[in-house]
Amino acid sequence: xxxxxxxxxxxxxxxxxxxxxxxxxxxxxxxxxxxxxxxxxxxxxxxxxxxxxxxxxxxxxxxxxxxxxxxxxxxxxxxxxxxxxxxxxxxxxxxxxxxxxxxxxxxxxxxxxxxxxxxxxxxxxxxxxxxxxxxxxxxxxxxxxxxxxxxxxxxxxxxxxxxxxxxxxxxxxxxxxxxxxxxxxxxxxxxxxxxxxxxxxxxxxxxxxxxxxxxxxxxxxxxxxxxxxxxxxxxxxxxxxxxxxxxxxxxxxxxxxxx
DNA sequence: ATGACAATCAGAGATTGA
Length: 259
Hints:
This protein is α+β, with helices and mostly antiparallel strands.
């Protein structure tokens, strides 16, 4: 089973890009971030026509996440638990009913800039809530994965120019420490389970010719529970998507599971 | 140190992103 994550940077802006990618990559499940659309305006027919069940958690202008699945989705929940006052649409969960049922958590973790300040406080608090949610899911022993735009550069090797990010919310020690705490619960980062070394990125800024200079960062991740990690066959970054017409600033990352 | 680029909403330019 192929599961992909993709920060699309606006579903309306990607109205030609997305079907082209889906028809080429053929994921069974696609976890989307930054749909920048309310649920009523999401072009669900475009995906339903391709055989996907569509579940969205949208918001006007900003944020918004979705799960598309060719397999049935059950028990869909929207929003990250732990803060009743959080208005931002950044989290969705659903169980994908394949050979092995897998709980898929789609997330768009807050950017957190500028630092210090309320936006960084929100990011760190959000990460604490995510850690709590992972702890709860681990007790169930049901296979699950958390994937999406983490807005965290885990290590220096995950940036072409790590020195440019030392004061940034994506790479500050507190951000990296929270990400490690998530891993240290017993989750496996799928890409690093398969590939070592520098030069692997999932985001290139639109500005200053970042793509042409390969000035990228790796911030889109798959974290797998132990039962889910046992099923991991492959994890790849579809870097070439960034060079096609009207790209998002992120590219898809996908895993193949024996499920 | 800043802005560069793109998207959104609105219908210009501010806001947000990373």
